[in-house]
Amino acid sequence: MSNSEALTAKIAARSVRAGVIGLGYVGLPLAAAAARKGFRTIGFDIDAEKPRLIHAGRSYIGAVEGREIAALVEKELLEATTDFARLGECDIVIICVPTPLTRQREPDLSFVERTVETVAARLRPGQLIVLESTTYPGTTREVAKPILEATGLKSEHDFFLGFSPEREDPGNAEFTTVRIPKIVSGDGPAAARAVEAFYAAVVEKVVPVSTLDTAEAVKITENVFRAVNIALVNELKMIFDRMGIDVWEVIEAAKTKPFGFMPFYPGPGLGGHCIPIDPFYLTWKSREFDIPTRFIELAGEINIAMPRYVVAKLEESLDRRQSCSLGSAKIMVVGLAYKKNVGDIRESPTFKLFELLEQRGTQICYHDPHVPAIPQTREHALYAGWESVPLDEATLKAQSAVIIATDHDAIDYALIARHAALVVDTRNACARRGVAGGNVVKA
Length: 443
What we know:
Layout: H1 3-12, E1 17-21, H2 27-36, E2 40-44, H3 49-55, H4 66-74, E3 78-81, E4 92-95, H5 110-120, E5 128-131, H6 139-149, E6 160-163, E7 182-186, H7 189-200, E8 206-208, H8 212-243, H9 247-254, H10 278-286, H11 294-322, E9 330-334, H12 349-359, E10 363-367, H13 393-397, E11 401-404, H14 413-419, E12 423-425, H15 429-432, E13 440-442
């Protein structure tokens, strides 16, 4: 029996051990999903706190409940560790690590490279290695494969290599890890069969594509599509505002058309782990082929400019309504998370609002029921330890203005409109909930 036949037979029998590297918003739900389907799963992370919480039956991510983690740990289907030497125990290794941008907005593959090097140090015949981190087409083949093959083992013969892009949507209760169709690909037919067999046993639907590069391009395309369309409505927002037209009313009316239109909504900027970052991976890669990416770069310029637009709108409104400058203002920003009803602060545009306001000498605070305190992060260490202030009458009245940056459902918008001197609403949160007031300005 060949290595590939032995691996697929073990997958069918649930006798493989899966390893998931990176226990964040992608890795932990995937590890729990694999364990739930009967695969003994080891989660790996460099942060010792995550394995400690998992073994204590506690979840730090909303997509997975603590009681489910506790049950999987008790059944010995799920465990977590910082000991990467145990990768050798795993028949399947799935890599879910960040792929950020440098300050020059170029791909930073250091996390992927170091992780693949760690995997290579324990690589053995018969293993399946799958990259899930979003990246430019060619990464798995050009970066991961040579590192693994430097061991002397060969892809598609000794070990198997795949790419299956993550498609997580934090806070989306309808489309969880197992319900989102999974794109799968392999470095050759044997690898493709193994990748498809594993994910088909974990999620409801798999969608095989022909090559690793194609699978990488699928995820980039999804996020470019969203970035460009969000930039379009952000630009329309600025144009219609000058014309005295409410862009949100326009979109609500336009989406009644049963064909040819898909609603996207403006905001204070882009956040999250995908849309602000991934399109620039394709922009960078396209230079190798001398192809300009005009739409992507223009969309990036518009979306990146949105926090400045919000601050300009705030400054204009303060001057007109209160004769108050930003240098003497006290501002509360409501919503630190990048999207509603989650505690995920990755790439949140609220941090850019903080920076712009602080540069003007503004006193700032924030309220977010999902982010009681700002954790230590690589990008925003300056704000680590800041705590969410209460959303009450006294705190609201003490502010010169309130900016609604994230439209969490748990926020009392009527309270804000009733007691804040000025509300700059970047999400149309007040109007959508029937909260009106002459002190509410849309931005």
